[in-house]
Amino acid sequence: MKRINRIVRRGTRIGPPHDNTIRCRDGFTVSVIAHWGTYCTPRPTFCMNEDLGILKRYLKPCGECKPDGYFDDAHCAYRGPYTHVEVGFPSLRPEPWSDWESYFDGGGQDDPTQSVYAYVPVEMVKRLIIKHRGEKIHQSGFSKRKKRVFAQL
Question: Could you tell me if residue 107 is left (phi over 0), alpha (psi between -120 and 50 degrees) or otherwise beta?
Answer without folding.
Answer: left
